[in-house]
């Protein structure tokens, strides 16, 4: 564990005077390596494997700290609050599949794209998510669940 992306976020924690714990390192690594945004419960369930005595409250406090330091952002998908790391070095937006919930980063730099704002407004930052269906999920006869493509027709148990 420990990619250069992980180290960049750890350095930001150090810069803000936060204690660096194994749980925080693992949380950052989890969010950096996951292909989709995670709920607090999913984060807890994953971290509990490495830290069985950790409480959900501890996970939530760490999520709150990372959000307060603007290292992660939250948004709602499928009526559930999800979290992902913020990448300020490479401006982009996310395409999020509404079936498998995979998030795909798409390069986008708003400073290179004119955004029609009324004169009295000043652009500071942006957050853009586009929702739809990825190539695997766009077939209307299939549903992706736990990484497996299955037929949506009741009674059909086809897995690819």
Annotation, overall tally of beta strands: 7
* Distance, first to last CA: 31 Å
CATH-assigned homologous superfamily of the largest domain: Winged helix-like DNA-binding domain superfamily/Winged helix DNA-binding domain
Tell me the strand percentage band.
15-25%
Number of domains: 2
As residue ranges, the low-confidence spans are: 151-160
CATH topology of the largest domain: Arc Repressor Mutant, subunit A
- Overall 3D geometry? globular
Arrangement of strands in the largest sheet: 4-3-5
Estimated helix fraction = 25-40%
Q: Any idea what the CATH architecture of the largest domain is?
A: Orthogonal Bundle
pLDDT averaged residue by residue? 80
The number of helices is: 4
- The helix-and-strand class reads alpha+beta
What composes the largest sheet? 3 strands, mixed
> Which CATH first-tier class of the largest domain would you pick?
Mainly Alpha
Backbone CA Rg: 18 Å
Order of helices and strands: HHHHEEEEEEE
Pfam families: FUR
Keywords: Cytoplasm, Metal-binding, Zinc
InterPro entries: FUR (IPR002481), WH-like_DNA-bd_sf (IPR036388), WH_DNA-bd_sf (IPR036390)
Protein name: Transcriptional repressor
Write the layout of secondary structure elements.
Blueprint: H1 4-15, H2 22-33, H3 40-50, H4 56-68, E1 72-77, E2 80-85, E3 92-97, E4 103-107, E5 129-132, E6 142-145, E7 148-151
Parallel strand pairs: 3-5
Antiparallel strand pairs: 1-2, 3-4, 6-7
Helix pairs in contact: 1-2, 3-4
GO molecular function: DNA-binding transcription factor activity; transcription cis-regulatory region binding; zinc ion binding
Main location: cytoplasm
GO cellular component, one term: cytoplasm
């Amino acid at each position: 564990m420990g990619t250069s992306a992980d180290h960049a976020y750890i350095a930001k924690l150090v810069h803000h005077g936060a204690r660096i714990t194994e749980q925080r390192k693992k949380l950052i690594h989890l969010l950096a390596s996951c292909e989709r945004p995670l709920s607090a419960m999913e984060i807890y369930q994953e971290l509990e494997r490495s830290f069985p005595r950790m409480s959900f409250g501890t996970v939530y406090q760490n999520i709150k700290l990372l959000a307060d330091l603007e290292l992660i952002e939250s948004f709602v998908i499928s009526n559930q609050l999800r979290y992902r790391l913020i990448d300020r070095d490479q401006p982009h937006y996310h395409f999020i599949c509404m079936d498998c919930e995979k998030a795909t980063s798409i390069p986008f730099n708003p400073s290179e794209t004119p955004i029609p704002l009324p004169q009295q407004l000043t652009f500071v930052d942006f957050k853009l998510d586009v929702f739809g269906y990825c190539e695997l999920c766009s077939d209307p006869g299939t549903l992706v669940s736990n990484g497996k493509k299955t037929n949506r027709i009741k009674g059909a148990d086809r897995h690819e």
